[in-house]
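Exercise 3.2. Students should predict the tertiary structure of the chain below and write it as structure tokens, then compare their answer with the key that follows.

Predict this chain's 3D structure.
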Amino acid sequence: MTRLSKRLLQGLRPWCFPLAALAALEWYSRTAGKDSDALAPPTRALRALGGAALDGSLLQATAFTLGAAALGLAVGAALGIALGIALGLSQRAAHMSFFSIEVLRPIPSVALIPLAMLVFGFGLRMEFSIVAFACFWPMLILTQAAVQQVEPRLLEVSHVLGLSPAQRSLKIILPAIVPRLFVALRLGVSLALVVAVTVEVAANPNGMGYAMMIAQQSLDPALMLGWLVWIGVLGYAINVGALGLQRWVGHRMGVTA
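Answer key:
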């Protein structure tokens, strides 16, 4: 077996189970489950998704969900990283805020939907605020832990050089925690998409989650499954992109990411 064929087989191995599952679903939905109101053949789901792409609803819903997720992630990550660095550098501040963080952190983000609806109403602001709340906590906790494990000699050098807190964070702390920061960022990326779709399924009449609910209420399982597959594909693509960005930044900064 040639090296090229070995690489080809290795590349196909991760697709074996998904393709087998799709083939099994195709067979079942066309035989024993052909009268089901909840299942549809994957080929029919792809056609329904193609129809959504042609009429523009796919692009519109996808843009709304990804926009809300990205905006919420940006706000939550920025606040989480800033506060995480501050708490990681100050043991006194970490002790003072410990109780407040541990009380607020376990609150499910979806539990804030009624409050966000009262404050913002339906739309982008309501959704991205809930996404920001969900992404804030893992970014805060992981950033704080990463800062606390920074080599003490680096902090001593920053004191000797007389760097301000902002300069110390930008020139010493952030480069030192890049690998762990990207672990937190990858977690936040997936969490942002999950929370955004959940908010749309539960309350917000916009985006991919709402489109999937409309398909379900219209007894259109093909379109519903099509949206579900599309959300999964987007999640996979976003995760691959985040991993590629992590490796690129790690290579540029000369660290192992």
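Discussion points: The chain has twelve helices and no strands. The domain at 55-253 is CATH 1.10.3720.10 (MetI-like fold).
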